[in-house]
Amino acid sequence: MTTRVLVTGGAGFIGSHIVEAALAAGLDPIVLDRRSPRPDLEYVIGDIRDANVVARALSTAELVCHQAAMVGLGVDLDDMPHYVAHNDFGTAVLLRAMRRSPARRLVLASSMVVYGEGRYLCADHGTVPVPPRSLADLQNGRFDPVCGSCGRRLAPGPVSEDALLDPRNVYAATKLHQEHLARTFSRETGIPVTALRYHNVYGPRMPRSTPYAGVAALFADALASGRAPRVFEDGAQLRDFVHVRDVGRANLLALTAPRPVDGALNVSSGTPRSVGELAETLHRQAYSRAPAPVVTGEFRPGDVRHVYADPSRAERELGFAAVEDFRAGIAELAEDMRLAA
């Protein structure tokens, strides 16, 4: 009998790729989303916050992959109730319903935003914590953190799953709360939970023309529209850009591992790249006739400077390592954006 997996948010950017990975592996996906996915799939249309809808979607599911969420940094604090309602309350509704369902494993979409800043090393003081950057420093173009003891500029390093969790915006706070809710649920029920901390996901079907879109989509949308991408700060901030098909494969591995992996795992490429490099690669690979990226010095107070992953635990525990080529993936994203225009 085919194993049935509920994918919440399965019509969305990441969720749709997870559904495709599940189908290719012989699983039987059920999609819960507020919009219809492909017509050949079983789906339940509704809101993750609706207990009746969630119970119906879970009624025959053995595995659960929870992707439904409000994503992105947000526009301002007016967004706070929406993030909490969709991410925290929606997850609580799902977990309550899971306790009364046949489901026996949960894979949760978490995020690298739970770390706040990444890992930093001082030549004299070793690994040091970094407080939020001050508005005065940002306004004066002092973007890189310094050691609180000696004032030296710090060197960034890869962040591992045992790092201090320090969310620095509303979205990040809700993603960490999702992990806490799921961990409490797991302790009470014995149902294992794997929290996949996605780093910066890019690829086909990314949402565009929205303030909640990821930076790769915002840059590609600008270029496709004939505008120069606006690169904030000095463009040197480091991130780990991971292709959405790699993310889909990581979810499949977590859902089907012979022994469930309990706890958090980074899902990343393992290769840090600057935001400026991302913009330049998009321009060079796919939009060379469009205006070149412009480094503006602008900033968002909720942003962090450098955060990229140590991918070793995911490789050790799940056998996951990213395989998609960055430049080919960026060209694919750009072509997808052009077709969607």
Question: What order do the helices and strands come in, and which of them pair?
Answer:
Blueprint: E1 4-8, H1 13-24, E2 28-33, E3 42-45, H2 51-58, E4 63-66, H3 80-98, E5 106-111, E6 119-122, E7 126-127, H4 135-139, E8 155-157, H5 170-189, E9 193-198, E10 200-202, H6 215-224, E11 230-231, E12 238-243, H7 244-256, E13 263-267, E14 272-274, H8 275-286, E15 294-295, H9 312-318, H10 326-340
Parallel strand pairs: 1-2, 1-4, 2-3, 4-5, 5-9, 9-13, 10-12, 11-15
Antiparallel strand pairs: 6-7, 6-8, 12-14
Helix pairs in contact: 1-7, 2-3, 3-5, 6-8, 6-10, 8-10
Q: What can you tell me about this protein's structure?
A:
The protein starts with a strand and ends with a helix. It contains 10 helices and 15 strands. Helices cover 35% and strands 18% of the residues. The chain has 341 residues and is of the alpha/beta class. It is globular and about 60 Å long. Helix 6 runs parallel beside helix 8 and helix 8 crosses helix 10.
